[in-house]
Amino acid sequence: MTKDGTDLVRSQFGASAAAYATSDVHAKGESLARIVELARPQRHWQGLDVATGAGHMAAAFAPHLANIIASDITDEMLGEAAKLAADRNLANVSTAKAEAGALPFDDARFDLVCCRLAAHHFPDLRCFIAEVRRVLKAGGRFALVDNVAPDAQQLPDASQSDIADTAAAYNAFEKLRDPSHGLAPPPETWISLLTDAGFRIVAREQFGKELDFSSWVTRMRCAPDTITELRRILTSGPSNLRTFLQPRTDQDGELHFSLQELLIVADKTA
Hints:
Elements: H1 3-14, H2 17-22, H3 24-27, H4 30-39, E1 46-49, H5 56-61, E2 67-72, H6 75-87, E3 93-97, E4 110-116, H7 125-135, E5 136-148, H8 160-177, H9 187-196, E6 199-212, H10 213-219, H11 224-236, H12 239-245, E7 248-249, E8 255-268
Parallel strand pairs: 1-2, 1-4, 2-3, 4-5
Antiparallel strand pairs: 5-8, 6-8, 7-8
């Protein structure tokens, strides 16, 4: 990550650390328990959680591992991760400052590397995957959860050109809310990146995640004019984007929408 990119992520998430610690999307969420099930962790494994945020992924894996390091580039997030581990009496969780594209760990150190709802902030996904492969032992396991852009499954009536345009519009929508957003690619991009890097896909799932608009913008401390524009995009923006995001109002008039989460478990091949 460039210095400017690193500083932007630290600025955005340092101030939001406490909000992410209590966010239901991050603290709970269907993908949190499911990725642990899919990864099938072993008691003797050494683990690393990349871009841990407030530490929820590390805490979910910790009871199933010998040890896990919760790593992040943001001091405030590392503080939240340490607090969560202490609150849950997870003595096998430690923290470390680490950048996803330049992990400060020895080759072949870990049995498991995991990363949840963070990779869309990384400026170079190939570099990240290469670092994951480097620090994994032979046969080691990578568990990924992240938001993904639309593909033909979500937009079956759209042309490939329209799908690509909608993916770009979706990423612009995310970046408007959070300037540190980098890229959330469609699912097949992740599959290609991993297989090209020498990983074997052992599990893959995808499902929708409902968000309430108010909490989503409040968590990132969006300015009023940004909130207005985000709301406009959801309610009257491009039709394919609205098909993908599924905006709707509840009985109290509160706006909700959905994102797509991809879960992948992949093993490092020889």
